[in-house]
Amino acid sequence: MKNVPTLFEWAGDQQTFDALFKNFYDKVLKDDLLGEVFRNMSPEHVKHVSHFVAEVFGGEKLYSQEGGSHAKMIGKHIGKMLTEEKRQRWVHLLLQTADEIGLKSDPEFRSAFVGYLEWGSRIAVINSQLTENTMQKAEPMPRWGWGETGGPYVPAGE
């Protein structure tokens, strides 16, 4: 391919991400393990997560235009004390939802998709153990593509 599409383009469009996260959070709220964590989420939570992930995958910068940033997303996890069990359930339910809505299932896309979920959810668990957000406000939004991992983990602020 001469013009390799972004993960966002390959997945579909913003409606694809909106449907994925709407259906996913409907499942999360009914889940015995995760329901408690998300019970008091804001009415805008689903939209913000959808816009964040779509932007990370190369979609429009809707999350950033709404005043969001990587530091703000990190800040949402501070002090939540997430566990590995909760992280695994979150990833499992999101992958199950992806299958249910018919998200692209080719190996290359799913490899990149799962790679991002693993990377991002593990960072969320690490940050959830903190009491304050040490990420600089000007930290750029992550960008995810067809195989990059972003390099070795370095805690924010180092």
TrEMBL record:
Short name of one Pfam family for this protein?
Bac_globin
Question: By its UniProt entry, which InterPro entries does this protein fall under?
Answer: GlbO/GLB3-like, Globin-like_sf, Globin/Proto, Hemoglobin_trunc
Q: Which UniProt keywords apply?
A: Heme, Iron, Metal-binding, Transport
The transmembrane segments are none
Instruction: Read off the SUPFAM superfamilies from this record.
Output: Globin-like
Provide the residue positions that the database annotates as binding heme.
H48
The terms under GO molecular function for this entry are: heme binding; metal ion binding; oxygen binding; oxygen carrier activity
* Similarity annotation: Belongs to the truncated hemoglobin family. Group II subfamily.
Protein name (Swiss-Prot/TrEMBL) = Globin
Taxonomic path: Bacteria, Pseudomonadati, Bacteroidota, Chitinophagia, Chitinophagales
